Amino acid sequence: MFIGRERELAVLYKLYASDKFEFAVIYGRRRVGKTALINRFIRDKKAIYFMGVESNAKQNLENFSRSIMEFGAGIQAEMTFASFQAALEYVFQLAEKERVILAIDEYPYVARSSKSLASTLQLLIDQYKDGSKLMLILCGSSMSYMEDQVLSYKAPLYGRRTSQMKILPFDFADTCRYFKNFSDGDKAMVYGMLGGTPQYLLQMDDRLSVEDNIKNTFLNPTSSLFEEPENLLKQEVREPALYNAIITAIATGASRMVEISAKVGEDTSVCATYLKNLIVLGVIQKETPYGEKESRKSIYAIADNMFRFWYRFVPENNSIIARGAADLAYKRVEPHLSDYMGKVFEEICKQYLWKRLLSGESLVEFKDLGRWWGTDPSTRSQTEIDIMGEQDKDTALFGECKWTNEKVDAGILETLERRSRIFHYSEIQLYLFAKNGFTKGCMEAADKMGNVTLVLYKDLLKRMME
Fold it and tell me: Domains (ranges, CATH) in the chain?
């Protein structure tokens, strides 16, 4: 099943329609759906699709030659070009009079095996681009390689691309479209467990409960998801053990650099390098309080929901999971799920606010959204605000998100209103988001204040799916 990616497909269709040489770079983490996007795009077009393998240059050249021959002759031929340059020149010549797409998937594997490939491509693009109808697509999962060796100004191919796309996981709305049978609450739980990575979503069976899905995947030693984070790290980094220790430290409560360093037993300078790489991979994110730049208050959090869920619940239950005791493991996990979902719900609410802004329905035309934490001068205590967004120096919005079974009462609204006064905006809009609704007192207080929007989760989901 193929869903979403409308914007990415629109970009590719526009490039294709130009009927001149185009060079698109597509990159993103493994499992995020890059290959599915390319296959969807080329399915009804004249295209040569070649996926590189982690082997030597000879093997990749043979495979590339076979792909070209199948396209040109319509049969599987055994002829192998003498070099990548000869093969690519042949493709450029094929595209002199008609539109042809050449998609090289997992380009880093091919380029690492043939060190001169990037320079060869540069040479041929410069030679043929003015009269060519070739649409070249280079795709890769190695984020660092694609950014350093393809997109960087130091790379041989710099300046040749006509488009680039970093493919990200689906947002909450597109994730929900995968599932027809899950309840509204279950859809949020699945997004909290897996994020929007298509390959992970395919592991879910919406005919079963979320509990059974968790037992069948994260708590099942034979499931592909059981070892997925560690396997991904092994593919992407040289020292997975230390990366694993850093992610575990963050998942178990360490958020500041000094705390992470203490937990893993390494200097902060060492941890900083590893954290930077994890940020590039999209596993970790660095946060600062909204409106502040680099700050000593900066913290680190796990950005990817699958990593966050796995590192939060699997390692500490690993021994009983390995013994096949999924029911016992779930009993240990279940009491913490509501608390775990708090941060997930905040992200869902942010996506809702962005959708309102982009559709012209937002009461505040904010520039960005984020979380704020710091000292409340009135109480001289540490406090935080789930969502904050500024339009200008006079206008802002503040939001509080509650993923609890209890209805949100007026006290929560009063606290949010008080915290908003830490800042000195003349016009503010307050948003309360609730999983299960609001008390009568909260609704009456919101009506009286006049600048409050109460958003129930089921209504939020309905609006996001429109």
Answer: 6-166 (3.40.50.300), 173-341 (1.10.10), 363-464 (3.40.1350.10)
